[in-house]
Specification:
InterPro entries: DUF6476 (IPR045519). By secondary structure, the protein is of the alpha+beta class. It contains two helices and four strands; from the N terminus they run H-H-E-E-E-E.
Length: 103
């Protein structure tokens, strides 16, 4: 158990490449550790954000209209209907405008 490592130390002094290799491996290990901490920190910050923005309590679509897609902009909610009509609402759920898409 208590081996004498003086031969290793002597060999390291005689071969300077070993000292350089030891320093290189130690440096790369430290950099990899810092990188892992950064990745974990970024994931933690990103996953703590809400998935969807706050939605209004209700959005009233025109009679007989069925939504095909809903998109959230910074201050608007955009609803694309199955009849290629685009309905735009504000964050409170009030209609702002509409547009009919041409096929």
């Amino acid at each position: 158990m208590g081996q004498d490592d003086t031969e290793w130390k002597r060999a390291a002094k005689e071969v300077p490449e070993l000292r350089f290799l030891k320093t290189l491996v130690t440096g790369l290990t430290l950099i990899m550790g810092v990188g892992m901490v950064a990745v974990v920190a970024l994931l933690w910050m990103r996953l703590n954000q809400p998935v969807l923005p706050d939605l209004p309590s209700s959005i009233v679509l025109p009679e007989g209209v069925r939504p095909a897609a809903i998109t959230f902009a910074t201050d608007r909610i955009v609803v694309v209907t199955q009849t290629d009509q685009v309905l735009v609402y504000d964050r409170a759920g009030e209609p702002v405008g509409q547009l009919q898409l041409q096929p």
